[in-house]
Amino acid sequence: MNYDKVDKDIIKSIQRDVPVSRRPYKALSDSIDISEQEIVKRIKMMQEKGIIRRMGAVLRHQKAGYLVNAMVAWKTDSEFADQAGRIMAEYKEVSHCYFREVPESFPYPLFAMIHAKTEEQLVSLIDNIAKRTGLDDFLIIKSKQELKKTSMEYFNG
Amino acid sequence: MDKLEDIDKKLLDVLQNQFPIAVDPFRVIADELDISFSDAAGRIESLKEKGIIRRIGAVINADSVGYKSTLCACKMPEHKISEFAEVVNNIPYITHNYVRDHELNIWFTLTTPSIEDRGRIIKELEAAFHIIISCMPTQKVYKIRVSFEME
């Protein structure tokens, strides 16, 4: 494993909300008894190792003006998936794009989360992606209700 | 959404994409935008209160800390959805849960410390709600982007 107990303690704290203060890591520094400089150094290290994907603000996209969202699942063979996935990844409106293991009853393994400001924008984006990738069998699966949206908390059990 | 001032949009951009890894990140940001610390802090707090900022912190790569995550879907009878939502709210390993416009009407993400934990939770939910849950774990990632452009 390429992180230790101190890194875990840091993750437990910064995976939540870093306080908006002049010295946001001061309380953590006191509680785990290492300097703020050491905390910052370890955060940088964990970023380099890819343990921390990103530090910063996580927004609610609806409130940021991206009101229309859809999960689009595309039918594709795994040999074509890479090319299509790379094309989809180029779009700034595509936030997530994955190839998934799917059951036989749902043969649409390539998933893209698409965010747009208007319905028209969404439709034309999907149309554009379909043309560029050549994938014409897909499902637009919109969310009707958000039942839960939280951030994962690691090492808490 | 209220119209945001340009300075708030800049703040959101920096907070998302160039958050300084420093002992005093908010002071660094204030300096960069040429505003006072207290002005920056006040604006950030207000963006949080408005619900535009969900939180400011680390986004962890589940795989790299040994966690296993998967997307799950199931067909849930309409009248059981609220009960299911309540149960899910008490499962910390399920972070996203949506009603969607498809025959598979419930979609959620499950991130567990192990595959065994995943199996146990899925089994419990299937038994409690008399449903079959399909797991669709990621095989390949083409993109994970978590920031939004402010226009």
Short description:
The complex is a heterodimer of chains A (157) and B (151). Chain A is an alpha+beta fold. Chain B has two domains: 44 residues; 76 residues, Alpha-Beta Plaits, CATH 3.30.70.3460.
* Count of helical stretches of chain A: 5
Q: Characterize the largest beta sheet of chain A: strand count, sense, and whether it forms a barrel.
A: 4 strands, antiparallel
**Strand segment count of chain B:** 5
Radius of gyration of chain A: 20 Å
Shape annotation of chain A:
elongated
Q: What is the string of helix and strand elements of chain B?
A: HHHEEHEEHE
Poorly predicted regions of chain B are none
Strand percentage of chain A, roughly?
A: 25-35%
CA-based gyration radius of chain B:
20 Å
Adjacency order of strands in the biggest sheet of chain A: 3-4-2-5
The number of distinct β-strands of chain A equals: 6
Question: What is the secondary structure topology, with strand pairs?
Answer:
The complex is a heterodimer of chains A (157) and B (151).
Chain A: H1 5-14, H2 26-32, H3 36-48, E1 52-59, E2 68-74, H4 78-90, E3 94-100, E4 110-116, H5 119-133, E5 138-141, E6 143-149
Antiparallel strand pairs in A: 2-4, 2-5, 3-4
Chain B: H1 6-17, H2 25-32, H3 37-49, E1 53-60, E2 68-74, H4 81-89, E3 94-100, E4 106-112, H5 115-129, E5 133-144
Antiparallel strand pairs in B: 2-4, 2-5, 3-4
Helix pairs in contact in B: 2-3
